[in-house]
Fold these 4 entries.
Entry 1:
Amino acid sequence: MSPQNEEFLKRLRATFRIEAREHLETISASLLGLDSLAPQEITGTVELIFREAHSLKGAARAVNENEIELVCQYIESIFSLLKKSEISYSPYIKDMLISAVDLMTIYMNLTEPEDQKAHGKDLKNLAEQLKSFAEGGHQVAGVHAHKEIPSHRPVEMTGEKTPPVKRELKKVVIGSARVPAAKTQPVSAEKPAEPRPAPAETILPAEKPATATERESVRETLRIASEKIDTLLLKTEELLNIKLMIGEYEKQLNDSLFYFQPWKKEWEKIQTELRYLKNRISLNDGMDYRDKKAITEILNYIDWNHSLVFVVDSKLSKSAKDLARTRHSVSQMIDSTLTDVKDIMMMPASSMLSILPKMVYDISRELGKVVDLDIKGGDIEIDRRILDELKDPLIHLVRNAADHGLEKPEIRLRRKKSGAGKLRVILSNIDSSKFEILVEDDGNGIDVERVKEKAVKNGLITQKEAFEMSLTDAYALIFKSDISTSPVITDLSGRGLGMSIVLEKVEKLGGNIITESEPEKFTRFRLILPLSVATLRGVLVKTGEDHYVIPSSGVEKVLRVKNNEIKSVENKETVFYSGKTIPLAPLRGLLELPDTHRKEEPVHTNVMVLFNSENMVGVSFDELVDEAEFLIKPFNRQLQRIRNVSAATVLGSGQIVPVLNISDLIKSSLEFAGELRVRSKAAEQPSREEHNILVVDDSITSRMLLKDILESAGYNVKVAIDGVEALTALRSDKYHAVVTDIEMPRMNGFELTYQIRKEEKLKNTPVVLVTALSSPEDRERGIEAGADAYIVKSSFDQSNLLDIVERLI
């Protein structure tokens, strides 16, 4: 064979493996669900398996996989008999065919010729056994050399109906058809299984067209290597930096234009003097010629300078407007392109869930349990990179539920439960950026005392700590390495590693886990995760001269704490938050940065409250700069495990900023025992006299942020959602200042300011505009309306706001 033909055959076999895997997954999932269907619903699923086996047979013939072709041929024969109702589907046939699928799957995953040859013989023996059964044999000694098929009674079919199967093609096809949920139910030798309700649907990865339209759509799809998609996404994400840079240039240009405003005011002030000088020169009243010439030259220069500044101001203003339009247009195009490319990376969760029915079936059969598996939410689309990372955690949770959680039928019956254990895996969207995976079983529940006992034995906690430990803290112990309540180590569980892997993977993705349980009733794990990993919502903070991004998903709240409220407990600083004392550590100390000495000790400390599945801590920092969306740049292999740092991002100014790791920061905070700050009594300022301030903003986030900042500084703060509500509040109560947004429904900030200045009772109330509008025209309009201060949110600084309010009051 020529080198070209060998290369072609190699590529063809690689494509066949992918196609074969999809066919085998669909056949396996359909077999598992078949015995849970009502008799009238079996025909459609039998037809689906028949077509899958036929397609796999044809693909195998094209690449000379004769053994696979032969096995598929006899699977077709068996399902032809089922279609004709010449035989009935039973657990015996189910186990025989699943074992056949397993053996073909193993064979398809082999790469060494010697291994393929050995398993090829097994496939030939399997084909003979299937042939014997299809041609009238009633007893088959063994379908698989490595697995004996247990004898089962036929499964009793219920007459209940399940929802009809629906098929829906996605925009990007990587497999997605719907088949009924696999409800695995091995039958006990002592007692037949109880009839069960019709199962909920499970989404499994197998896109098989049912209509001519769908077949045409499939022909229009293109299979692309995932590496190429990753590269495309990476290059598209780089465009986000261009968007940020344009925004930074626009801000710099608007800041430059702002300096023309005081120049214009000063120019207006000297107009009287300029006219006076010009009149003196024109009168020719005996002024010395040299003085007259000098003054004339100066006046001419002033006029020329004014004209030049006016032209520059006009051109820069025009450039600022053009740049704003360009930024808007480019931002829309980049956002649209990035969204489209991200959509390509999104896959239905069914691609991750498809492995669960077979896994639960195998475990339940091995352990002699009866498990009803209910899977929902497979049509939710999630970033493929997240699905890849979540596969192992999900397997660990489901395996633990089937092994540790659910009891055997006889134990369940003694506890007044049904013989079949219920295991639910449900995916649901929380919002546009997050989703939840719920894994719940109705089994033993978590034995908290046993978990504590194991933790004490392994030296993780003391006996005293175990006695005083809260239920939430006790649940957190199950995620520690080497903690397992299983009495024996098996191939399924008992090593104490599975749950620690779950937590590590989930936190790496920026998620968290909520654990709930009740003894002998249920155990429930809720995994909260982002839908995509390309961009990150984060808080930009400054400590010393350095900037850092902290993921918003791990930020509970930002506080402004008075220094005298920070207490020392066992040589560690703490702060009181939400009814409990939490440890406090400086960000510079956690990152091992050199101390920065200030001329004056601040009266307040900025504290960010961080949380994960187990703990909550406070981290102090110097300045809150912004909260925004950041493009994440992962580190290369050499830098992947830098403590406290997970990635990097590039600001619009081009500055590279580290993205901090929430879990590492919390661990570091708990370990940190830094020096206590010495605060002299002189630094502690007397309490500020209470003043009433009205915060007006239609955004609840901005409203609460401003309220927290001002309340932390000692002010009494009330809020309103727009100008109309604010005006009503101002007329009924006395307020010493108004801090308002501009863009609001019913009455905006400009109109509110005009109205305040018009009313005799309110006209002297200071007004501070805090807005995202940063153009010179908006600033000018704010000043014309009568505002005392104008703060742009993009360059918002807490201390600046407090200084302005204090000065105005």
Note: The CA atoms of residues 91 and 154 lie 6 Å apart.
Entry 2:
Amino acid sequence: MLHQNILNHLVLVMMQESLLQNNFLLTNSILLFVAFFIGCSGGTNGSSAVSSTKESVYSYAVLGPISNANVRILRVVDAKLAYETQTKTYNNELEVTWPQNKIGSFVVDTNNSFSDDDLMLIHVTSGSDVDANDDGQIDASFTTLQGDMYAYATLRYIKESGVYVNIFSTLAAQKVTAGKSPTEIIDILTLYAKKIFRLSLNSDDEIDYKDLNAFVPNLTETKKFINPEIYTQMQSSGLMFAVLDDENLSEFINRDSDGDGLTWEEEIFIGSSVSLVDTDADGLLDFDELQAGTDPLNKDSDFDGINDADEIQSGTNPLNSDMDGDYIPDGVELARGSNPFNGDEDLNGILDGLDGDPFFKYQWHLRSEGTVVSNTNNIATIIGNDLDILEVYHYQLGNGSSTIIQVVDTGVELIHEDLPIDLTRSLNAVTGGNDPTSTQPVSKTDPYSPFGVGHGTAVAGIIAARANNGTGVRGVVPNAVIAGSNWLEEQSLYELERAWYSAPNADEILVSNNSWGTYFLKDTSFEDIIKLSVEQLRGGKGRVFTVAAGNDRKTFGNANLSYVANNRYSIAVASLDYNNTFSSYSNPGSNILVSGYGGERYYESPTIATTLLTGKSYYEAELGTTRGAITFDEDSEKSYTFSMNGTSSATPMVSGAIALVLESCPNLTWRDVRWLLSYTSRRIDENNEKWIKNSAGRIHNINYGYGLVDADAMIQECRSKYYENLSVEKSGVVSINNLNTDIPDTKIGVQLTIDFLDAFVVEWVELTFDSDHPYAGDLEIVLVSPSGTRTQIITPNELRSNTYSGGFRFSSAAFMGENSNGRWTIEVIDQLESDSGKINSVQLKMYGH
């Protein structure tokens, strides 16, 4: 039986070759040429051949694998027959799958008088397709190849790489007309290849004619094609059987079966339907869309909420989501009744999308203009050091009541003028009702008390404070709602399970923000609840969970010391200062995935402006030399603050960014969100020594994860027709028990190796470490992948007992994209003298696809 990923049929162009006594003839205006190879299954040479002593390089004839086909090889310049052979036949005694069983392969002896630079043509006829229905299984009876297959290649390429004679090489060959020189032929083939591929299929990274010969059906990644569905469309159109049946393929690919003015070949190249005149049903013919430059596969080419045809009719531009550049998408403007052609309708000198929030000017994390804001130390922000979120607002602001972000915290004030609360999905863990307002009183003598009680209200404002409403600040998601919870006031697992998973209407919540944690937590109860949520909610795509990395750096804290932050379902978020370096308090951790802004302290440098409890903030003059919940002098109601900070601030910025991404790409799963963060986040503080580049090209830092969240980059990536959701999750585990390995009480350290046999693309790594060391905080643990990528799994910390006894699980996001297979190395170093211990056991568990 063939492997499930066996080559499928390839579409062939109708060609005929006539050869008589090594004389080259032209048929159907197609020039055919001669090359010289060695046959592995017999055949005759056009000249004497010497058997090669080198390892054989296999070439293939593939629709499904073509067994027992005739292969003729001719040289272009003189049409000389160089070699004849046959492809390998099917052997039903072999149990290995294709291509290991070599069905359809042939080998060519290159020890001859031909130059390596000679351009050759390979011509394949007869034989049998052993998998004509393309189901990945050997057919009960084979289908005879009655048509012709072709490929051009230089002798050097054949010798070094081998050639796949396939549908694309054959289609391209029909474009060659009589009298063309080898150079002209290569130019014609290269031009054709550039109409098919967006990425090179071979190692030279340049799209050219050689890519035509490198295509392997079902094994070549679909993202390599301009139209990622091109091969599927070829199969469904019947072209494979047209080749087998020797139909006139030239007529086949040049027909216009749906009458939209585009040939079959033109439609296949772009991905439009060969049977529908308006593939995306937007009111514009596919042909007209190509003329207009719009996307015939997307009824809203610019993602502004208006169909392309409606935009053309109304006069807006279907290729510009924000015609007046005012940071409000055209579709939103039309829905509101505002003018999409006028970016400043009230003529106040402020673009409409940036107007209506008087304290927006203090929110440097949204737009940093190099001014002195949100601090009492007169420190100016740095131009460009912000979330760069405004770019997203040209096409996405959130979708109002359907964009729901949960804040599990001290509660969210229901009556706040600037917060949109979704009462149907909010919970009060103390009263059992739906009003998420904190039940705790605010101290009249402690200026910091409004933060203690109003922490969740401040978090909610960072995420989704209303925009353009004439008051206050705005959130990262200007048009969304908050599902609040005051679980921190009643910390039972029952109430947390309700908030995270089982409460009514839970399915529609996109993101759960958790700006809280503990210094040390070894309890899987939390992730057991999260697991249910990511597996079942949001229609099975999973609610996304963000968790603060913690604020304990100065006491040697590490985000990897908490099971809430280091499980594979949670996105641990680090904090940045205004200068794009890590905040002095922000915990490091190999489990950290991404960063947001938290600032430092308002009396030192810029911090975060957001909502706070109504009437509870303090003016600077009121505080005097005391520090507390400070607000702007313009805040007449004292319901805001500019002193919010911590990973508690960074986390909701990431939550808001992810919500914008999920509204733009609603089919993403929780794993896809993590995956996108790993290669779209913005690298900052580039001189920091902790950046490591893994073998997949992704750059991680225990201080920053993969960098500053970039919602626009995530959306551009996931909206691309080349993005594919991650495949089914895989996992593997290797345990080594009863080690009894001494940890030297020096800085020399000890190494352990684990051979991981399962092979998949890594998304997450867990290392469970069991040691009787009486002072666990002395230990530094480093994990090294088979490719040499090194990450500090845990740094020395303040744990003062044998905390790792019985096993403690650490995690890492640093290896995303690497191959799991191979020898992994664990390095354990005792960084402080006077205490010693042993390693009892280790377990390495990985997840990926």
Note: The first strand starts at residue 18 and ends at 20.
Entry 3:
Amino acid sequence: MTSEQPRPAAGAVGPPTSSYRLQLQPAFTLHDARRAVPYLAALGVSHLHLSPLLEAAPGSTHGYDTVDHGRISEQLGGEPALRELAAEAHRHQLRLIADVVPNHMAVPVPEQLNQPLWEVLRDGPDSRFAHWFDIDWTAQPGPVDAPERGRLLLPLLGDRLGAELGQFTVEGETLRYFEHAFPLRPGTAGLPIAELLSRQWYRPAWWRVADGELNYRRFFTVNQLIAVRVEVPEVFEATHRTLLRLHADGVLDGFRIDHPDGLADPRGYLRRLAEATGGAYTVVEKILTGPELLPADWPCAGTTGYDSLRRIDGVLTDHAGAERLMHAYRLDCGTPADPAEEGRRGRAELTAPDGELAAEVARLVRLVEGICSAEPALSDHPAPAVRAVLAELLTAYPVYRPYVVPGEPAPAEAVADVAAALARVPAELGATAELVRGLALGQLGRSPAKDEFCARLGQTASAVAAKGVEDTAFYRFNALLSLNEVGGFPSRPGLRPAEFHDWCGYLAEHWPHTMTALSTHDTKRSADARARLTVLAELPERWAAECAAWTTAAGPCPDRPTAWLLWQTLIAAWPVEPDRLVGILLKSVREAKRATSWTTPDEHYERRLVEYARAALANPGLCPRIDGFVQSIAPYARSNSLAAALLHLTMPGVPDVFQGGEEPLYTLVDPDNRAPVDLGSLAVRLTDSPADRPGDLAREKLHLTATALRLRRSGEAGPYRPLTATGPAATHLLAFARGERTVSVVTRLPYGLDHAGGWRDTALGLPVGSWTDQLTGHRIEGGEVSVGELLEDHPVALLVRESQS
């Protein structure tokens, strides 16, 4: 084996015991990752989890905007740097997991950076790459000499075309518009600009027409990310060739699949990937809603962990207190009675005729019209009726999308979900609803158009759910921000310990190697930021009073929901620099789309908000009160942080540690959470003993993380078994065994525990034997153990039974 060609022995690489997510970017390249390998090996992880590796748009800080599937990003160091990283990782018995982006590519600036797209723009539907992209050529009239062929809408002009004609110039065979560059159809370079534009296979248009007229599928509502048709075998092979070659060479050992819900056939994609890799470790970024479970027939190891994140946070959240807090929020802000209503409203806005996803709904309507035209028995369903029914289906669908495979019986879950979503359709649209139901479930026979409808409905539904709930409703309902996380379910705050145990038992039986997560590059608030906010559910009346007092002290606020957002943001990330706070608030209110938005900003409102936030941070009477409150809840936030970390690191699954998360991390939504981390300093602190500074959360969490990861790597994570506590504070304890030798014990609802008198006579039944708490060094004998003694100085314990002689 050479450093250029790492090739582990066949069969040497099993599933991860844990992984560590690194956000690669120009400020943290593959070279930096290689230098971090000794530290990450010492920390105890088994795999490095790398953000996207392929060539992305210039300056990309995330890598999800691929421009070239044929090479590793030169901005990150290129393939030589990746191979050097793999070789260094292998020397330390680590392996690599790569993030794969199969759903879309960038529409970059300049456009020629995406060569397949460049050729499509030049050659139109006859391009050798035309089948790569999910384009509806029928939705736009083509060039004047071939109107029936269609063309691609490019919504990037700053104004209507007539006002922008003077900004176009021709250089050789290239059309330029400011920093944009477009290829010219052969033979058109010498024409006057207006005639030249009329003869291209693309139509430059005002950016505002995209929502209603766009004729290519995109990532959610991002016009700069055009969808790729990986369901076509040739496209799959071309877009995955480099990553598959690196896997075959032993450089990459596993894959994280971004946004599988955007794919026409997620299961089919995973089967093709499994076949191509021989069953490599693969997890999917599938967002599961409520009680939804990952389809059992997907050939993968599981999800990226948002489902477990929700359970971890849930079991540490006071259900009754959260409900009281939401009641106080409703009274103060006059919001809907249920955050689910905000979700429905957010979805409805997207699917409205003037909504951001109107073009996607229109494409579905055209498909239904074509199906009905081809079959007289299905005719006489007016387009407005079809549109109304589809909008209701997409608005009310209870999970992200159905998984209906043409030619197979629809899953029972999809049948029930479609029925539930159509339950509110008016009676006069009943026949059309029945038509749409049959098409959605694949029950009206097969044809290319019907098969396409099934796939496209799922793709559109997932975009509506993500944008309507995660990226709209979760920025509107600000009662308790720790609930508003990716995959969250704020309508049902809190989780009983028995439910958490049930979840862990389910994972252990069905998805033992699924990833679990606490923080990711997409979480709106890091785990430790949420740990602070979770305390608020235990003191709802006190927190509501503080909110009211701070709002009064700060002066007239732009609106009450935003005041709740502001104060919780300060608590979550305190102390906060003014510019950082302003950036987060502006993103939040624009995503909420109530008073302002990205596409229709209200400068007056935004100026008021910025002034209000900056004045609050400059208020000499207010800042000490905020700081005092944060200090007063610090012991309980510490307990929540350590409890969440220990649950994450010892429950069934593969814990994925987000960069820097081994110490307290108080980051907010991207780009705040994607900044490079000083791993060199963490390496130095890893050698420190937490006993040197008792109560130092940074050292405690780093020590806990390293201890738990090393235990996992040594093979100590055995079968899952809940343990039961008895006594007056039993509900504040959560404990479980992993096999015969390890036990995890955590405190839940610490504020309530403290104010109810502590553990008192609460006891935990430990298996017989001598145990050592790996976090404190304390030894204890099995049997009925006093929890007050076990957790005397620490809110959590990680017990290992001594070997029998």
Note: The first helix runs from residue 30 to 43.
Entry 4:
Amino acid sequence: MLVSPNVDSPPQFDQILHLNDPYCDPPLARDGYTLRFSNNRYPFLGFFTRRGHTYSNHLLATMHYSYKTFPVVLSDGAWWLSSDLVEEWQELENNLRALTSYMFNKFEAFVPVDYMSFPLPRTYGYAKARATEASMRSAALKSRDAFAALMATCSWLLAIKSFKPLAEAPWFLRLKQDQPTACHWLDEFAESSLANFTTSVDRVGVVVTPGCQFIEYVPKFVEANVPVWLLWDKPGDYDKTICKQYQPPEDVVVRAWESYYLRKEANDRQRREAIALKAPSMAPRGDQAQTTVFGVTDVPTLSEAPKPIPGSRQRRGESIDEFFSRTSRENEQKEAAESSEQRASRLERVEHNASFPLPGKRGARVWEWEQDGVFWVRQPVSRAAIAENWINYAPGHLRYDSFNNEWDLSETFDPSAERPEDPWDEDATEAYMGNEVGHAGSDELRAPVPLDIQTAALEKSYSGTVYHGSSPIPEPLQDILRYRYGFTDPEPNEQLAASTLPLGKALRILCDVDSLWPDTDVTKDQVTAFVQGVMDHNMPATLWDLCPANPAHPGVNRAHLTVTKLDFGGHIWYAITPVPDDSPGWQLVVYDATTVLECLRSYSNPISKRAMAGFFLSTGRPYRAMRTFSQVPPSHQPAKMTTGPVTAPVIDPSGPEVPTNRPFSASGLGWRFAEWKPGTIDFAAYERKRAEFFMSARGQSALELGGIVWRLGMEVISPDAVLDGHMSDVETRELCTDEDLEIVCGVYHVFCATDLDRSAQQAHFSWWPKHEIWQKSPMNSGRWTPWAETWYQRRLKDIKEGKAVLRTAKRWRESLKQCHACASFEASMSEKSADHLN
């Protein structure tokens, strides 16, 4: 009987068959990928991630190579693994080994007396040469898989002694303080799946037996979401142990055994009937005993056919022979109806696949037949598994269906067919090159190792990242004056009052001192008079189209654009809608009244919402493409909105909440100490993390905020790329959080004292000003200005040259106070624009 405190179902039937399989000598990673009974030599086995696990973290990205994709080179008559990959693996292995040794000795973890570690990756000689390409690839594959055991050991130690959240554990913060140059490596480690004990990391799990010598850690396994089953055949199996708490009530045990015998009797009856009637391989269903209470679960695979996998085209309970018999008839019908072009294309596929080539990313799908009790189920094989294992499939175990462009895989097709030679059996090749595989010792990872975290390879991997952003194109000042601010030319002979405002200061107020302007006294006088009039609230009617007496005043309103005022808890926004509405499923809203009037002046012909959003996105103007939002911090932008017709927007505070996954950070770029000074790796790591965020859906939504957040996003992704995948998903989207924006602006949480008291005074130091600081600064003009771009490029140059220093919020406010008149001008313009819209 199996009892589980954290899994709702028993292990799969094929897993049960391998619970007591012997281990290889030396043990291999594939031993860890298989669910086993608890083994006192390897208490960390349950923490293995399942084969095919995707490592999304940058630190572990080098685990994604497969047999076919390893970068190998031929040099001096021998085959080598790429030097870059060797450096990354050596650094990762040495750091993980040192960190594991550190945790063993710091935590004083109890281990069974016969504890042993798996061979380390270096044991397989990935840094050494091989005589053939195949042997080099095989050594690389074995080395890569050996990392799985090392990482499982790290996770096991973290779970039993430290647990989550690692980034805030006092011992981990102290470690970062002691290793200031390794902060980013440790941050990457803390954010990886090694320290992630949520259900999002699919671990193999373990079946605990009463003889287990690490029973005291089983609750830690449960807390870490490692699947745990306890083999519980006798009531007293776990008496006087901590697992006693998981013992089911006696009546539940009785019901479980009753269900078992009823099911066994039904199976026996099915078997007799199948023999008597010479039925096909699918056994008829018997009377299934109902188990409806106390979470007792029967193993369904022994008496009832499992549900087919969606898309497999298999029918429930259909055997392999029945499946191919039916699909063969269907293919005959397809062949009779196919056109000459379809036939030529199909025969071309047949010819191409005759040599069993590796299916590419868009190639044929592969389905593997797996036994589930007495039934066979057609299971999809992932592209990653295909790339890794295709070379090991025997041709006799494969069948190709040219009509559906699919491969089927099963040893039952030809039991006599032999797989290609096992790449693990290479003793001759290894001996030839002098690279025999050694065995792991019992103290391999527990032996004290100097803790000196290296980061050279990690830093090199950061610098090799290429981003596909773009620099903003400056807008002509004449267009800004005319369309954004409503400047109009006076009559040729009209005399304007002389302005006391110098042209240079007027251009600084307009945040553009670099644009060329026609060198005429009249034009200069017009510009200075216009700027002075806005600042003094005394505008000559002939210069501003918002003055009712101005001839251009009626043109501010457009019949093909409708503006609707929206009130979100005291925050006024405006919905801009084309007439007719080309996309009624979502609204385009802005909070800047000046931007609204800019649209009304600019578009004399009908325009789509997408085109307007493209204009905003390419020039840094804040906007929102919105329908339903998840929870939004009140510090920026509205919460949720469900839109009906444009004329009647409905605020829906109780509307459906979007489940929010926050995989990036809870504290910006992490915690640092008072003595810490950033280096080149710090900015490189920040750029990588910022790019990772902007490539996500929520990161692309952050571009709508405009300002410094928008400009930093332009370093990573182009406006066109955002629009292509972004505007089609506005029905339900998430807004970024304050923590997300801390990543964008490069914020570190720095302790002002050297102690680890979390209540001690802290300061936020950042590479760039925070979003809210930028919003309130004179640099914010509702668009990205040439002046802002000049400032940005100067700051970026200083950072790249190592001249820039991180600044606190106070220092950023002081540094951005370059022209108070800019803020006064924008405020006055926004006020007048809002009055006009009202």
Note: The mean pLDDT is 80.
